[in-house]
Amino acid sequence: MRYRLCVNMAPAERSEGSEEGRRNSSAVSSPAQGASVTGSDLEDNRKGDHRDEKRDLRSVLVTSVLNLEKLDSDLYRGEHHWVPRTQRLFGGQIIGQALVAAAKSVNENVFAHSLHCYFVRAGDPKLPVLYQVDRTRDGRSFSVRSVKAIQHGKPILIFQASFQMFQPSPVQHQFTMPAVPPPEELLTAEELAQKYLSDPNLAERSKQGLNNFLAEEVPIEIKPVNPPDVFHRVAMEPKNLFWVRARGYIGEDDMKLHCCVAAYVSDYSFLGTALLPYPNQRVRFSASLDHAMWFHNPFRADEWMLYECESPWAGGSRGLVHGRLWRRDGVLAASCAQEGVFRVKAVGTHSKL
């Protein structure tokens, strides 16, 4: 195990049109469709991979996705910004909005330290989501909130979060952040897609899949550290590393808001880690079953963080994934865990129907 003491811890694969390829391609951020990437563009991006906060657009995650409408006491309504091509609501959106609703009911001096939730029904992208908050407990140091996300009169998510007043302690340690190239030296997911599209031998169905995800408006940016070999079906270890941040400017004032954004981000390209050893299996169906998250140290979700994902187990049509979000200075910001269900079929097999 990699440990370090913490002294000053402050409060697409070449998809051939497969379902797996489409699922993976939806988990990358998107520029305008048809945009070209030149060598000078990439060089400029690497020289100055920071945003002028005064001129940058306010993150859509703040202005739209996580901006809930209050209907009554402890009752809120959330709208959708991006819907995956599965036509089911993105789980990270429901988690993030539920945490927003819970955070609105606690005192200003307590902050989320953990959340646990179950996805019990698929979300309907044609309807908004209602969030009903139950003020389960308020203690001297901790507050607990329970939230139901509701559509069609039935819960689609059962959610609990715990909030804590900052309490310093001499007991402090963490793992050591993996040594990886900085984000300025890596291509974004959309730049990688453009690189793959420049291959004249790329299959037409693969081109269509890449162009489809380039047209999506995902409010997250990622830079893969170890992207898969899209031109060969190569089994990889169930480990994934990528830099991630919210698109747009959020600011540093509201830690509650950054936790909500991180909750949204944490479900992004997460479960697919369990499928990396199985490039010859086509995913026919996949969905998150539950999700947990622990917040350790202050961070900004609109600045690059390293998302370290690994799957210690898969079986019984389920997979378990663990994740760690690292600040650039090596401080562990948050940890995540998720179990999901996926049903697969070997590539190349044909139905007899």
Key terms:
alpha+beta, two-stranded antiparallel sheet, 14 strands, disordered C terminus
**Radius of gyration from the CA trace?**
20 Å
By DSSP, the count of extended strands is 14
Helical stretch tally: 7
Estimated helix fraction: 10-25%
Outline type: globular
User: Regions with pLDDT < 50 over 5+ consecutive residues?
Assistant: 6-56, 349-353
User: Distance between termini?
Assistant: 51 Å
Q: What structural class results from the helix and strand content?
A: alpha+beta
> What does the average pLDDT come to?
84
Enumerate the strands of the largest sheet in spatial order, edge to edge or round the barrel: 2-3-5-6-7-4-11-14-13-12-10-9
Sheet of most strands:
12 strands, antiparallel
Order of helices and strands: EHHHEEHEEEEEHHEEHEEEE
Q: How big a fraction of the residues is strand?
A: 25-35%
Provide a quick synopsis of the model:
It is built from seven helices and 14 strands. The chain is α+β, with helices and mostly antiparallel strands.
Q: How would you characterize the overall build of this protein?
A:
- The protein is 19% helix and 33% strand.
- The protein is of the alpha+beta class and 353 residues long.
- A 12-stranded antiparallel sheet has the order 2-3-5-6-7-4-11-14-13-12-10-9, with helices on one face. Strands 1-8 form a two-stranded antiparallel ribbon.
- A hairpin with a 2-residue loop joins strand 12 and strand 13.
- The longest helix is centred in the first third of the chain and has 13 residues, at 91-103.
